[in-house]
Structure prediction request, 626 residues.
Amino acid sequence: MHTGLNPNLQQTYRVRAKNASGAGKWSAIAAGTTLPGIPANLNATASEDSIILGWDHVAGATAYDVEADGNIISDISEPSFTHSELVPNTVHTYRVRAKNSDGIGEWSSQIAKSTLLPVPKNIGMTVSSTDVTLMWDKADMAESYDIEADGTIKNNGNKTEYKQEGLEPGTSHIYRVRSVNGNNTSAWSSELSAVTLPDIPGNIIAAASNNEITVTWDSAAGADSYEIDVDGNVLDNGTKTTYIHTELTADTGHTYRVRAGNSAGAGEWSGLISATTAISVPEGLKATATSTTVSLTWIPAQGAKGYDLLVDGTVTDAGKETAYTHKELEPNSIHVYRVRARKTDGFSAWSAAVVQLTMVGVPSGFSAFAKSEEISLSWNKVEDATKYEIEADGVLTDVGEKNSFVHSGLVTGGRHTYRVRAGNDNGMGDWTDDLTVRTAPPAPQNLKAEASINEITLTWDASAGANGYEAEVNGVIVKDITDMKYVHSNLEPNTRQAYRVRAVYEDGTSEWSGLLEANTLPELMIKVAENTSFNFVVVVPAKKEVESRTIKVSYDPDELEVADLCANTPGIELQAGVVEDTDISVIEFTPGEIVYEVKNTSKTIVNIIRFLSKTNDNANVSYTIE
Prediction:
């Protein structure tokens, strides 16, 4: 026997006989091959209802036989075998041998393998923000269970529920479960992935206005999105941590709660909060100003029990009215106002601010000077004013930047009422008090002058309503004349004087009268011997604009005697009357005064008076031509 050979090794042989004489011939060659080797590395992989065998391929083997639990399964072509339809947690024995055309090899060593326990079924899972709980059905033949949680294996005893606590919100975790019985286990269940729910949103705050409520909250750990319960309606708010509830009615209550969400689902709801919209903000706040006040009005707010005003930064109780007047202000000063409605348990928001500038001040020094047909008014300029308006008898007139106004075309003696106000681009200020003024009486009429050598006496007719008169004497105004007479004295003889007068009353003066010019009488000093006659010549210059002129001759009858009123003619004239063949008439002749009337004044006329001296002393003669 040829021993110690390798399996599946081909060998050749021949034989010859020999004796003492020597060896005979060799036989024919005979060949032979050793049988296949014993399969090595027999192994088994179990599930709960089958066992899969595997072994190394045997050189030269064309098939294999498997003995499973004493039963031989022949002619398996591959180095593997699946023993199926087995009962879980049962032990099975196996051995295997190789074979080929040369024969069947030896059996391998026997191995035993148990099927696995049943895998736990119907594994369920619940998550919260910090816990994951697994539940499964009880597995047959299982005495306990293993849990693999995030790679760590723990024995859970015979409990079919496992809870992992203290997790971070929004974190991912992986789990699987297997049955255990002694040293035997089931296969692991499929992996289950879990994400803890996000945390409950915190710091939920609701801020209300009159028509909307803004709800805010802090970001929740593990949150991808948020839902908000608005008055019982759940709304998706996306990733925003702010929700604005709009188009609300003022003074109405609303409730809110918030929860976070991620891929695992929605977290727990926050606690419920309530918020009430504010009462409406008063609308239509308007301001109108005078020089020292600002008047405010606004539209009533529904549900308001009263109103507050913010006046230049100070809160003022405006009561229940929808109007308020800010008084005793400086002219041309800036003021800021806001209003809010008030109820028993709160306030509305403040309205938008209204800025108002008081108007410029009231003009001071408003006065009038009246004439018979016009009244002149004036006033002091007002700081910051750029224009003025005057109301004259109810008629408004813009006088621009002027601080004066002349009301003309009036009737003498009429009463007129005025008031004035200043303004600028911001508007017009307050009116002054009414000023009532009466036009002056008419100018004095019938002004006359009676001249002597050294004085002129003025007279005129009374003006109705006049308190007195003023005279303008050669351009100088003389005041406080109480009668309709003025004597201008201490004048030089034969000098020309100019006069006009006007009436004075409580509101002003009348117009001036027409100008009246008058000459003092010329005074001639004559010295001739007593009882001597002489000629006194009076020259009347031509004056085309009048039809006749009057000449007055004055003398002292104790010094002189008239011998002929008109020595121009051959006859002697000593009586009043027309002087024949001349343009001269004697109007009046009394001792000391002669009055002539001269016609045809377009030419110069000369009249000669013959006097007889009654003294050796000086004699004076004077005359005036009207």
Q: What stands out?
A: The chain is about 0% helix and 50% strand. The radius of gyration is 72 Å. The mean pLDDT is 90.
